[in-house]
Every structure is written in C-alpha cells, then in structure tokens.
Amino acid sequence: MELLTVAEMASADQAAIAGGTSGFSLMRSAGQAVALAAEAMAERGRILVVAGRGNNGGDGFIAAAELAARGRDVSVILLCDRASLKGDAAFAAEEWTGAVLPCDPQAIGKPNLIIDALFGAGLNRPVKGDPHEMIAAMNASGVPILSVDLPSGINGDTGEVMGIAVEASATVTFFRRKPGHLLLPGRTHCGDADVADIGIDTDVLDKIAPKTFENVPDLWADVFPFPQVDGHKYARGHAVVVSGDLVSTGAARLAARAALRAGAGLVTVASPRDALAVNAAALTAVMVRETETPKQFTELLADKRLKACVIGPGAGVGERTREIVHAALSAHRGLVLDADALTSFASVPETLSAEIKKQNDPQVILTPHDGEFGRLFSGLRSDYPQGSKLEHARLAAVQSGAVVLLKGADTVVAAPDGRAAITANAPPWLATAGSGDVLAGIIGGMLAQGVPAFEAACIGAWMHGETGQEFGPGLIAEDLPEVLPAVLRNLYDEIGIAY
Q: Pick from 179, 210, 241: which residue ends a domain?
C-alpha cells in the first residue's frame, strides 16, 4: 500500500544493493517479470521491444532475451547507439544476441505486442525528437502495449504527461507503485498495473519511511470502528449536520443520512426555523433541532455526547456559516468543512487556519473540490504553479493545520504531518449532484465514532468510491447511503470480521 517516489525507489534499489543484491540481479528479475507478463498478454505471434538508453531499456533487453529463450519471435528497437549504453543496461544488452532494428517508427510494423521500455518513472523533462515520434507511432499502431515500470512519458511522482505518453494496455512495475500510477492523467495511461517482486526486502521501507500511500483498507483497518456487541447508540457517536435555509435543505439531509448509514449512533440536523418543517417531514431516524443562530448552535454543542459536526452542504455562504464554524472549533469537536463552509472563508483563509492551529491535535477535515481549493488556497496555487495535486494537497494541509481531502477521480487526502493517500477506486458515476454531500456525511460519521481525522477522511473517500462501484450506472446521490450496507458487508468479509 506504500507508494514510493522516484527518489525513494532509488533508495530502495540502493539499499538492496548494499545488502548484497547486485543491480544487475534486480534488473534480471525485473526483465523476467516483464517477460512473464508479455507471454500472458500475447500467447503467440511477434513481440517487439522498444528500448531506451537507461535501466528501463536494460529491463527490456532482459525481457527480449528471456522471451527468445522460450521460443518466441522477438524484435528490438533501440533509440540510441548500442555502444553508448552504460552500466547494467550495457550488460543487459549483451544478453540479447539478436538484431537491433533501427530507430525508425516504420520499423514497428504489426507485432502482436509492444513492450515499452523507453523511459522509467524518473522522466522529468518533455519528450522530444525521436522518442516523441516513436511513442506517437506506438500509440497509433493499434497494438497492445505493455509498459515497463510506467508508461513512457509519464512523470512517476506527479502523473503528468511530459508532452506525450504511451497509452499502455498494461504496466508492470517493481516492488511498489509510484504516485504517478494513481494520479491523473498517469493512471489512465497505465492500463492494468501489476507490481512484481524483484527481490527487494520490505525491511528497506523502515529506512525509507514513506509517507505516501494508496488508500485501501490495509491503511486504516486497525482503526475502523467495528460495532461492539455491548455497545449502544451513544457509544457509536452523535453527529450534527448544519442545514441551510428553506430552499437549501437537501444537501444537509444527504450528509445526515450518510453519517447514520456509515455507523454514527445518532445524527441530528441543526435547522433554521424556516426549514424546520421541511427537514422534519423528510427525516425519520435522523433527528431535527431548531438552530437559528450561532448562539443556539453553541448551546447545542454543550452536549458532550455530540462528537462531530458537518458544516457546509447547503449551509449558505456568509457570516452565519463562518460563526457556526467558529462555534464548532471552539467546542473542539471533530469537524468536516465542505462546500459553503469553505467558500465562506475564501476571502479570509488565514482566519480559519489560525483558529484550527490553536487546537491541540485538531480533528478538522477540509473537503474541497478543485474550484473550492483554488478559492481557499489561491496563494498556494500561484506560489507553486507546477505542483502536482499531491503536492498541493500536502502544502494546503500544512498551511491550514487541517487534514485536506482534495476531491476528484484521484482524490488525495493529506495531513499536516506529511502523510498522504491517493484514492483510485472512484467510478465516473460519482460525478453527480450531491455526491460530495454524501462523502462529507460518511466522514462525519467516522469522526463521530472516534476515528482520527486522517483515517476518517481516507475511509470516507474509499467507501464513497466503493458505493459508486457497487451501484453502477444510473447512480444519483440519494442512492449512495442505501448502498453503504453492502459496502460494509464486503469490507467486513475482506478484513475477516463476522457480522
């Protein structure tokens, strides 16, 4: 579940070499893994390896030699002079006794499979010249492509397309994935991405201490709030969701139902007087409490059994919402700030950050989509215009003092201490009105049950993605809370919890 940056992966390689495994041995294992994947993708016919000058090309030469030794028809195109290869890549090229085709896109022809071994994950400059032409020709060939480590042209740390990138059918990477395998647009270029064991001991992770993870249950299973047989509704936590006025009540109800479905023992909608009847008529298990003013909200939070607040979905933009947020922060509750709550602070983000940072171990989560993020952290975007989504989320977490969940198909959750997780299970069906309100509610339900903020945000993002996958096409936001029981059952089965 750890994701390694390009520099961290280099450290893992060096640690393995220092421990007695030669660099060429690692390359041989990588090339053999590529050969196995290639045979699975193309059971017959010609296989073409397109190799570059670095270690990625060396992996390609090993794969070519392995495949030829198994009787496969293999060709190799090399994008540099063979005599210019150095180090392990040069040794790997010696394993290949066949011909090397000229660096000419026309030489691709119509193989049954192309192995892309041009560039590795460390590419950090635009692709130009012969490599650009070769990638374009590979993509235009219509032939399935297996990429080595990462599709050539994708930055391993950011997922950025460096001018042009291979559109792979599948990718084989080694030891651990890179952020670029999950961040967009890199993920869409990878196809099915598998991780091969090439002989690096997992003990090296203790020295590297990576802080970037794929958001999967292994990351947070140890803090997931499984109900106890002797528990009761207050033990499972009480969440409050702030409603807006009469014409803006639906978002709060979506969040409230999601919090209840996610496991909170009780949920209350704090409603203005003019929306009280509408909210009460539409809700059953969720309670409704008249909360017209920030003072009344403060009085509501005097009940210590209220563990978490969700403020933002349909709450309205302006002074009232800001004051309600201040009240929640002063009460030191778990807090999800979404939508209108974020926009209400767009002109004074430093006020929000200062108040969050006053707390000892603040359990505050900001859940912006890209537009809200740009409004709330406009200075950050201008100061770091080339930053990746992962880097921007991390910087925002440090700047705000809160956990930041930056939404999208590659949702990133970042904590002020540097931890970050990338979520890769969100289907396109989630791009529908009210979906984000449900996400805020799920996270609020986790906070109510005592889950720490970073893990609560990660769980919420993962469960949100799973509900979308479980329901599928035709999804609308109202469907999401109703699918959560199936998602929870699947999670219990995966973790091995009886229910």
A: 210
Token couple for 294: 């920030």
pLDDT band at 226 (very low <50, low <70, confident <90, very high): confident
Confidence at residue 341, expressed as pLDDT on a 0 to 100 scale: 98
Closest by alpha carbon to 314, among 258, 370, 243?
243
**What is the C-alpha separation between 256 and 254, in angstroms, rounded?**
5
Select from 195, 210, 225 the last residue of a domain: 210
Backbone angles phi, psi at 264, to 5 degrees: -60, 140
Q: How far is CA 266 from the centre of its chain?
A: 30
- Each residue's pLDDT tens digit, 376-394: 998 888 888 888 999 999 9
β-pairing, 145-148 with 403-406? unpaired
* Pick from 247, 443, 421: nearest CA to 337: 443
What pLDDT, on a 0 to 100 scale, did the predictor assign at position 206?
A: 95
In tens, the pLDDT along 433-452 reads 999 999 999 999 999 999 99
Cβ atoms of 478 and 250 within 8 Å: the answer is no
Domain range for 184: 2-210
**For all residues of the chain together, what is the average pLDDT?**
96
Under 8 Å between Cβ of 86 and 113: no
How far, in Å, CA of 415 to CA of 281, rounded? 39
Q: 288 - beta bridge partners?
A: 269
Burial of 169 (0-12, 13-18, 19+ CB in 10 A): middle
Question: Cis peptide before 185, with omega less than 30 degrees from 0?
Answer: yes
Instruction: Indicate the pTM of the whole model.
Output: 0.96
Are 153 and 79 within 8 A, CB to CB?
A: no
Q: CATH no. for residue 41?
A: 3.40.50.10260
Given a cut of 90, whether residue 63 has pLDDT beyond it is yes
Query: Could you tell me the two tokens for 1?
Result: 């579940």
Same domain, 188 and 230: no
By the 10 Å C-beta count (0-12 exposed, 13-18 middle, 19+ buried), 177 is classed as buried
Q: Say how many domains are in the chain.
A: 2
Distance CA 141, CA 152 (A): 16
β-bridge pairing 287-290 and 364-366: unpaired
Residue range 128-142: average pLDDT?
Answer: 97
